[in-house]
Amino acid sequence: MIRKLFLSLLLLVLFGCSNDSFPLMQDEAEGSITKFNNDTHGTYGSTYVPLSSENTVIRNATVFDGLGNMYENYDIHFSDGKIQALGINLQVDAKEIDGTGKYVSPGIIDIHSHMGVYPAPGVRTSSDGNEATSPVTAEVWAEHSVWSQDPQYKLALAGGVTSFHVLPGSANLFGGRGVTLKNVSANTVTAMKFPDAPHTLKMACGENPKRVYSSRGPSTRMGNVAGYRDAWIGAEKYKKSLERNPSSRNLRNETLVGVLDGEILIQNHCYRADEMATMINISKEFDYKITTFHHAVEAYKIADLLADEDICAALWADWWGFKHEAYDMTIANVAIVDQARDGTGCAIVHSDSASGIQRLNQEAAKALAAGNKAGFNISEARAMTWITQNPAKAAGILDQTGTLEAGKNADIVIWDGNPFSVYTKAEQVFIDGALAFDKATQFMPHTDFDLGVKEWEVE
Amino acid sequence: MKYFYLILILSFSYLSPADAENSVLVKGGNVFLPDQGFVKKDLLIEEGKIVSIEDQIDDGVTGKTIYADGKYITPGLVVFSSLGLLEIGALSETNDNSSDIYNAGFDPSKAYNPFSQAVSLNRSKGVTSTVHIPGASGYFSGLLGHTKINNGWKQKKQGPLAVLTSYGQSRGDSRAAELQFMSDLFDFVRNRPEDKANYETDNIQFFFGTQNDYQFTNRDLVAIRKLLSNELPLVVRVNKATDILNVIKFADTEGIELILWEANEAHMVADEIAKAGVPVVLDPLNNIPGSFDSLNATYENVARLNAAGVKMAFYYNQGAGSHNAYLATQSAGNAVAMGVPYNEALNAITKNPADIFGLVDVGQVSVGFEGDIAIWDADPLELTSFVEKVLIDGVEQDLSNRYEELTDRYTKEKDLPNSYRSRE
Fold first, then answer.
1. B285 and B168 share a domain?
2. Per-residue b/e over A28-40, b at no fewer than 16 CB within 10 Å?
3. Which of residues 268-307 of A touch B (CB under 8 A)?
4. Which helix (H) or strand (E) holds B79?
5. Whether pLDDT at B9 is above 90
6. CA–CA gap between residue A54 and residue A96 (Å, rounded)
């Protein structure tokens, strides 16, 4: 039994991490290269339409702005899906929500989710997160696996999550492209896609690829590294060949070239410090940028290097020990990364779990407490950036969400108390200014899968 | 060198729970009493046992006094885990919680490693003992046992406490066949000559069926016999509401004691579980319809079971599981947020595990109980609280651990490279 439990954990954690990116696409019909416009992702672009929203003002709340500040007795006004103003006693005529005794934060963002690609119930017929058929599958897109009826989305919504980044798993060196979704109910994946969010590319270090491909290779970490470098050399060649033959298409290389062109963000599953340093060396050899290291249990060992390179680390607060490369855990990891180089580090609390994503505020609370116990002096307001501003930055959507600033999307959570307490719940969640979840009335989306599931009275 | 061994031998001979410091007085703390919750009390522990809990106990002339003004004192956490049996999950060579040889008679507690890094971390987080979760691959997962996780070579153990199995989709065959099989197996054991069935060391393989899952050694049959004689309860990991009712009926028919495990849909049949007097061990955080057996999983599970009067013990089963077993506090804290009364939630990670599994003298701060306590700087269920001291059998524990050392190594300014920095 425990073995079975453990295997399912392995499936989630061992394979559950990969990033993808959005590269160039070519329009075959016209015989020329059409660069993917991030606004649309071509024919795969976002068709998201926000729910209708009201002109609203939340009064007299304690506000975390996601930039590292906390304001007491603050008002926040939003309309037309955008934040209009924050301040004391805002003079606006709008629907009033009494925020007295309540806390307000930006919508929570998870940079590492497999909802949709590993939906619930967890059965093999819908386990679509790992194309574990070749070490390099940069050609696959997680969005093409996403099940829009996954009943897990609304559970994350009840935890304040307004956006999440779905990645392929970590079986492969290059796992495929990731996609950023709005936490909204829809019948198609494009209707969930976060408009203008860049594609990402999931890469994976360490134990998983070398185990999965041990018989055909790579079977060692050095084999992994050779595999990354070979793929990048191929991408460079492909890029050059486009000058001569612009209409030739190659899905795998389109993704990789998208990274080299800076349009696709690298999300790199990598636990060990020494391997992360090697991955940075590879990125310099081929002149691309690593946006985020994921599951970086040893990030604290190279926190200064990460800060110097402007690379975010997406971390669990305290999960560890399920595999060898997750052995050197410290609960101060997030804080050490955050405080590197005079507080210029980019720390993210991520979930990689349909359970953890429901309580990212709690996970941040534990990481904050451990950091301060280790001697730092980190505020709750700063810790809030770990689950709002920083994951927005890592997903390339910080210009639209992740902080409470005038002009940004009104992705807002009202908490019934301090979100760093275990007893606190999200009371209302707004996405683009529209009420998406209301605890009091149990207003929330239900997927088609939820229908017919009910509690029969026992006779 | 000769003397070194002599000292070692002498130390061994003195290492026993009776070696507990003679007396420890804990003064001024808020003590969690099982029926009252936190009350300001002084606490006297002698020879490893709690001997007195009073409003005021004068500082003794002998022994040690711990001043705990403003602190919170709870029983040490009793967790359900593979602590000490599992160093690194995905490295099978470091795993001792599973067996292919035995099933019902598999007792992993004998493999307990007191020096596991996971043990030291969990001890520093307020855990004082663990109920081992066995993971044998056969029809039964094995025997649950209880081990204190104190420093040093010797630990007090209680057990075996129960036999673990599972029912529902996690088993391969039809639900109908699985119950029929268990019934047939029980009949077989009942009809076996007693002298043979009680001969524990006669481990000749006994094939009940053709598949490996259905092989039993005599040791396994002996454990099953203890189920039938009510010496041990049967713990069934089961989630689906209809399955839960069937298992309750089965246990009643067979005359065996039952404990439900995991039980994601238990809230749907809470009254029936309460009526049958069956306790439930579960993680309040399990709210995902993660299988077709758990379509009605909900955060409300624990509140409804509590309202129905079901006795519950909580454990943490998210993420890395055993390595983070101490996060039972987070599970319990969330249970409070879901509507379980605070004292019930704290009892569910201390007293109730002991009650449910018949543990003697552990799990609560009461006179006569063993001196296993954790002293916290604030509300023990809150995410930002820390354990300051842990006593097991009245002995203050060394709470240092590899993870604090790693933290120190990478946070304190040092002139030398990390690897030359001194170890604590």
1. yes
2. eeeeebeebebee
3. 300-301, 303
4. strand B77-81
5. no
6. 10
Token pair of B81 as six digits: 């885990």
Do A332 and A371 touch, CB atoms closer than 8 A? yes
Measured distance CA(B386)–CA(B372) in Å, rounded: 17
3-state SS track over A251-281? HHHHHHHHHHCCCCEEEEECCCHHHHHHHHH
**A265-269 and A82-87: which strand pairing?**
unpaired
The domain boundary, picked from B362, B394, B411, lies at: B362
Look at strands A426-431 and A434-438 and give their pairing: antiparallel
Is A85 in CB contact (< 8 Å) with chain B?
Answer: no
Contact A458 B269 (CB under 8 A): yes
User: What ranges do the domains of chain A cover?
Assistant: 2-51+108-409
Listed in sequence order, the residues at least 6 apart from B174 whose beta carbon sits closer than 8 Å to its beta carbon are none
The structural domain count of chain B equals 2
Give the residue from A50, A47, A109 showing the smallest Cα distance to A79: A50
Look up the domain containing B370 and give its range.
19-76+364-424
Pick B320's closest partner by Cβ from A321, A324, A328: A321
Beta carbons of B319 and A301 less than 8 Å apart: no
Query: 3-state DSSP call for residue A328?
Result: coil
Asked whether B395 and B150 are in contact (CB, 8 A), the reply is yes
| Residue B274: Cβ-neighbour burial (10 angstroms; 0-12, 13-18, 19+) | middle
Name the token pair of A21: 């990116």
Is pLDDT above 70 for B5? Answer: no
pTM of the model: 0.92
Q: Is the ipTM, as predicted for this complex, more than 0.90?
A: yes
Contact B102, B142 (CB under 8 A): yes
Based on the number of CB atoms within 10 Å of its own CB, is B419 exposed (0-12), middle (13-18) or buried (19 or more)? exposed
User: Mind listing the pLDDT tens digit for each residue in A44-96?
Assistant: 999 999 999 999 999 999 999 999 999 999 999 999 999 999 999 999 999 99
Two tokens, residue B113: 């490693």
Q: Name which of B338, B384, B409 to mutate to probe chain A: the one with the most chain A Cβ atoms within 10 A of its Cβ.
A: B384
CATH architecture designation of domain A2-51+108-409: Alpha-Beta Barrel (3.20)
At A308, list the tokens: 């110097």
Residues B177 and B321 both lie in one domain: yes
Position A150, amino acid? D
Contact A366 B381 (CB under 8 A): no
Q: What is the pLDDT of residues B195-238, one digit of tens each?
A: 655 554 454 555 555 555 578 888 898 999 999 999 999 999 99
Distance (Å, rounded) from C-alpha A29 to C-alpha A32? 8
Exposure on the CB side of residue A289, measured as CA atoms within 13 A = 15
B166 touches chain A (CB under 8 A): yes
**Six-digit token string for A67:** 């930039």
